[in-house]
Write a structure and sequence with these properties.
Pathway: Amino-acid biosynthesis; glycine biosynthesis; glycine from L-serine: step 1/1; One-carbon metabolism; tetrahydrofolate interconversion. With about 425 residues, the protein is an alpha/beta fold. It contains 16 helices and 15 strands. It folds into two domains: about 240 residues, Type I PLP-dependent aspartate aminotransferase-like (Major domain) (Aspartate Aminotransferase, domain 2, 3-Layer(aba) Sandwich), CATH 3.40.640; about 120 residues, Aspartate Aminotransferase, domain 1, CATH 3.90.1150.10. α5 crosses α10, α7 packs parallel to α8 and α12 crosses α15.
Length: about 425
């Protein structure tokens, strides 16, 4: 950081402050994680200096001898790790990757079926405020409002099939941003086949769990798999599209030249590094521990009277309805942030409050698991959350000190701050 410090001390100071913040806070946002030092190094290499429009062996610029090998490594590692026939590692992030799916298979005005945003879906699954809902006809499914603990709050597959038969979408999305239960890929595939739709599994949140064997894989069921490369996969901020060979050309042409110019080669290299890390046994242990931690934390919160959407979790995240606590999600999230516990406020299914001031919070365990924190610490984490949500400013100050002490005992990967 000496060059940055010398050239732009203001930015250097902010980077250092962010490193300290990530080091001494308990990060519970499900979409965040810590990348390794190797991924960080790859992200900041001289590959930043190259333009590489096209694909390996078919570039529009010369001087690609090394870049082609970098991208080929990333592609082959993605194919091997996920067991797919084709992989494109060039999408800049998850939303552009999903938009490429639309370009590959749809024309403006065509119908797409996806989970509604307030039910746990993603903006790019056809929600109205997104380009995907403006340029295409979005139809949304949700989760069950009623039923027992085994069905309430879970994806309503009967509704999915009913809507699919009625609306005849050309693309069906499964997956989302606040789905705490296992995605039933076989059931979605059966519905997609019945109506002749392309099934897209958006596994952005669970890709690391799929790679680590802690969540069922969509391979063999979904025609297309879209994912970010950060979140549970612990890579850089990027994305991938994977598919059967049948759809390879359409997807590649949609990414480039359809939506993007040259790929970010430094990100491609970091993706390759992350995929190599994810192929190891240590990563499989991490993936299993992420789920174990989330389940343990959910059980501890439920025992303290917190209302968990769907009754718990099968993956890395918990969606909590705070209505019974009498505290809005935004108020709780800001109090927790002051206490060094970083979450995000989030709508819950059938929320009566507005999206910017919702009833719930969303929490997850990837980051704390990457620090080596295990299930035995989840009672303490749940106690902190309970104390802050139901307490006052004095409690917040005490919890902040206790959180910092625990963080010092578990240094974060890739960070130098607070290391012994």
């Amino acid at each position: 950081m000496s060059a940055l410090q010398s050239t732009d001390p203001e930015i250097a100071a902010l980077v250092a402050a962010e490193e300290r913040l990530q080091a001494d806070t308990l990060r519970l946002i499900p979409s965040e994680n810590y990348v390794s030092a190797a991924v960080l190094e790859a992200s900041g290499t001289v590959l930043q200096n190259k333009y590489s429009e096209g694909y390996p062996g078919k570039r529009y610029y010369e001087g690609q001898q090394n870049i082609d090998q970098v991208e080929t490594l990333a592609i082959e590692r993605a194919k091997a790790l996920f067991g797919v026939e084709h992989a494109n590692v060039q999408p800049y992030s998850g939303s552009p990757a999903n938009l490429a799916v639309y370009l590959a298979f749809l024309k403006p005005g065509d119908t797409v079926l996806g989970m509604a945003l307030p039910m746990g879906g993603h903006l790019t699954h056809g929600w109205g405020v997104s380009a995907t809902g403006s340029w295409f006809r979005g139809v949304q499914y949700g989760v069950r409002r009623d039923g027992d603990s085994e069905t309430r709050g879970r994806t309503d597959l009967d509704q999915v099939r009913e809507l699919a038969l009625k609306e005849r979408p050309k693309v069906i999305f499964c997956g989302g941003t606040a789905v705490p239960r296992t995605i039933d890929f076989p059931a979605f595939a059966e519905i997609a086949r019945e109506v002749g739709a392309v099934l897209v599994a958006d596994i952005a949140h669970i890709a690391g769990l799929v790679a680590g064997g802690a969540h069922p894989s969509p391979v063999g069921y979904a025609d297309v798999i879209s994912t970010t490369t950060h979140k549970t996969l612990r890579g850089p901020r990027g994305a991938m599209l994977m598919s059967t060979e049948e759809h390879a050309r359409a997807l590649d042409r949609a990414v480039f030249p359809g939506l993007q110019g040259g790929p970010h080669n430094q990100t491609t290299a970091a993706i390759a590094v992350a995929l190599r890390e994810a192929s190891g046994e240590e990563f499989r242990g991490y993936a299993r521990q992420v789920v174990s931690n989330a389940r343990a934390l959910g059980e501890e919160l439920a025992a303290r009277g917190f209302d968990l959407v769907s009754g718990g979790t099968d993956n890395h995240l918990l969606l909590i309805d705070l209505s019974s606590k009498g505290v809005p999600g935004k108020v709780a999230a800001k109090a927790l942030d002051r206490a060094g516990i970083v979450v995000n406020y989030n709508s819950v299914p059938y929320d009566t409050r507005k999206p910017f001031d919702p009833s719930g919070i969303r929490i997850g365990t990837p980051s704390l698991t990457s620090r080596g924190i295990g299930a035995d610490a989840m009672p303490q984490v749940a106690e902190w959350i309970d104390r802050v949500v139901t307490g006052d400013g004095e409690v917040v100050t005490k919890v902040r000190a206790e959180v910092a002490e625990l963080m010092r005992a578990y240094p974060a990967p890739g960070l130098s701050a607070l290391r012994p």
